[in-house]
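re: ur question from yesterday

yeah so i grabbed the chain u mentioned. its 350 aa long if i counted rite. heres the sequnce exactly as i have it in my notes:
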Amino acid sequence: MNTVFVHLGDARVDHLWSNINYLNRTAPQENISLILNNKIHLKKISKLKCDVHFYESSEAANNLFSKLEHEIEFRNGFWRHSTERFFALHHWHQLNPNDSFLHIESDNLLLPNFPWKKFESLKSLAWLRHNDEHDCAALFYSPTIEETNWFIEQITNCIELDKSMTDMKALSIIAKQNPGKVQMLPTCDERWIHNKSNLNLEMDLSKDFKIFEGVFDPAATGVWLTGGDPRNSFGWIKRYKNHFNPIIDPSTFDYALRDMNVYLTKNKVTTQLFNLHIHSKQRILFSKFNNIFLKLYVYSAHKLRIPRIFNFISAYYIFLNLISLKNLNISNIYKGIRALIKTRKTELFN
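ran it thru and got these C-alpha cells back, copy pasting raw so excuse formatting
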C-alpha cells in the first residue's frame, strides 16, 4: 500500500511539507508519494523523502470542471482542486496499477497508533462520513485500479448532473447509491450509541469498528480540539466549535492522552482515536515538539480552557493579501475580505 498526498495549484502549503516529514519520522516503513501540478513547489520539496508525481489536467477534465459554478478565484482555485485531486489520484493509480493506496489530506495528523496494516485487508473503496449530506476524504482508500476507475466514472457523473457539486457532496451521493461498493471507516464505537434519533446513522458509522478497534476523525474532533482555520477569523484559531452539524459530536467526549495517542470516552466507554484533522494547519502539531502542544490541547479541553489562539503568521498573510490588491480602496478591501472568508461554510472544506 502507498500513502499518497495531493496538492494542486500554487497555494502555500507548508503544513503538508511538515506532515510528510512527520510521517517519515513516525512511520518510516510507509511508502509516501506526493502528487503536484505546479513546479513552483520544487524547492520546498527538494529535501522531502517521498516519490513525486506531476499531474497535468486533461482536456476532458478541463471541460468537466469548467461546468462548475463555484467562485474560481476563491483560495487559489480551492473548489476545483478539492475535487480534481481524485482525477490526479486516478492518474497516479494508472501508473501504479498493481498497488493499493491510502490518500491522506494534507492537514490530517496520523497518531502513533494508526492502523496501517488493517487497511490492507480492505477489499473495497473506503472513506469517512461527516454528516448525512457530506462525506470526507480526509482518508480515502482504494484497493485496486479497477475500483479507482469505477469511482472516477461515478464522480464524473455527479459533476455533470449538478453544477454546484463539491467533493464532499459527491462522496456522500456515491456512497449512498452504492453501499455494496463503498465502506465507511468507523467514526463511532457502537457502545457509545444511546441517542435513538441518530441510531441508524451511528450504527452505519460503527459497522466496521471491530476491524480497526478504534475510530477515525473526519474533521469535527480535530476542529473542536485544535481549532478552525485562522484564515476564516482574521488570524484567530477558534476552538470548541462544532462545524457543519457532525453526526459524531466532539463536545460529548472526555479526552485523554496516553503515549501520544488520543482516547475518547463517552458513556463510560473509552476508545482510541487514530487521527486528528488539524484544520488550523498548525505546523507545530506535525513537528518534533508536537507532543507538548498535543498535551496542551487535550488537557485544556477538560474545562474548555484557551478557547482562542491568535496566529500571527496567518494574520500576516491575510494582511499581505489585502495590501496586494490593485487599486486599493474600500470596495476592493471588502472584496478581498469576502474572498478570504467567503462564508462559514468554507470552514469545514479547506
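noticed a couple things. The chain has one domain: 2-314+342-349. also The domain at 2-314+342-349 is CATH 3.90.550 (Spore Coat Polysaccharide Biosynthesis Protein SpsA; Chain A).
anyway ttyl
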